[in-house]
Protein 1
Amino acid sequence: MISEKPEVQTPEVQTTEITEAWAHFDARAYLNEYYSDLGSENMAFLNYYVRFFASLPDNAVNTTKLLDFGSGPTIYPLIAAATKVNEIHVCDYLEPNLAELNLWLSGDRSAFDWREFVKTTIEMETSATPTDREIAAREAAIRDRTTKVMPCDASQLPPIPGMTAAYDILVTNSCAEAATNDYNEWQRFVANIAALIKSGGTIVMSAVKGANFGSIEQSEADGSLYFPTVSIFEQDLVDVLTKVGFEPSSIVVESVPSDRPSRKYQGIMFATAIKN
Ligand SMILES: C[S@@+](CC[C@H](N)C(=O)[O-])C[C@H]1O[C@@H](n2cnc3c(N)ncnc32)[C@H](O)[C@@H]1O
């Protein structure tokens, strides 16, 4: 069992692209916009992670090392992971996201409240409503297992300075396609991210499907914020995963529609694959 406080690494000096596209990113506003309710997209995310982590062998909890790459200020993929893996690392490109994560990991009372997500994940796992104590125990398990919060940059190889192919499981949600609006660059970013996974390890990836925006934009319909996002579909995920070294027969892709008409994308795609 890991009980030390997460090791916090200071972000490297950032590139000019950050200042252009992401300089005004507000981590709390992002959380409030995308994670203040459990609409069908968020239910699909939780359900996907519950199913994925339930499929791991019991002994995974002793050895498995997981990274959430481009976690943003979120912890929702870690809820189902926390009782199934040995060690969790998280990384993101933006310092405000790392600060928001550290606020939650340190149990600060002003941190974003993930309890509904924790409660719903446990309900999905057990088909029973958890007590407040069970919810608190799962939050403690996430904090206990999370040992590193690091800066990362998908445009670099390796995308975490000094890091080798260290991870058994790499989770990455809406990251590479939100880091560029260029298709070839997106493929390169996925390759860089995949380089962090051990041979035989698994990528668990979600991506926005059919995005129709090219820069950080505010929706006229509901004020939602959108990031520079390459427009990709299910076959693009199969193609990129095959190209960057995952076993083609292991690739499984599924998708759900977006949960409100004002979203400027068609849905969310999920993919898992095993690295050669
Ligand atoms: C749409 S958000 C997704 C965040 C989170 N994974 C989630 O599911 O809500 C995209 C994330 O990609 C990160 N990002 C942007 N450019 C990046 C880069 N070059 N390398 C790594 N992450 C990047 C942003 O900081 C942001 O947290």
Protein 2
Amino acid sequence: MSSHRIIVTVPPYNAPDDSFKELLKQCNLLSDKGTTRDVYEIPGENKVLKAVKKPSNYANWNEIVVWQSLSDQLKPLFAEIFSFSRSGRFLVMEQLDPLSFGEGHNSQRYPRFLSDKVKPQNFGRSRIDPQHIKALDYGCVLLEHDDEFAPFGCAPAAD
Ligand SMILES: Nc1ncnc2c1ncn2[C@@H]1O[C@H](COP(=O)(O)OP(=O)(O)O)[C@@H](O)[C@H]1O
Ligand SMILES: [Mg+2]
């Protein structure tokens, strides 16, 4: 019996939603437990497709904005985003493995703006470095920081 490897193409970012709908047809549902998104496994890619199931694409856009604004120091704490559709309805993210039952993530520290840190299901294990736990649902953030004010119109202080 010959084994067939499915070859899929992830559309580049800003491609029309229809291109991602084609990709979706080749994917398998991983979770329909998300609040606003269904998540699909992209065959052979170690990536997931997050497809919005509610009228607003807010959660995907929030993840896009967060990912694009992360410093090099913070990026390793978050599942990488590879692509997203023009409307934000579809987003392609690094696939993480689920944590074992009862496994804490207390040994790693996460930025305060990540609002849902108490839920272990919002975190997963890197497939490249299994010791490494990353945030996979960062569609909701809290921007209130009482200690992070800076004046506008000023050049950053030189080190
Ligand atoms: N990058 C990922 N890798 C593996 N599983 C994921 C990933 N992102 C989401 N999932 C799974 O899909 C579920 C729903 O995704 P999530 O991002 O939490 O959507 P929502 O914001 O709608 O709650 C998660 O709880 C997790 O089980
Ligand atoms: Mg969630």
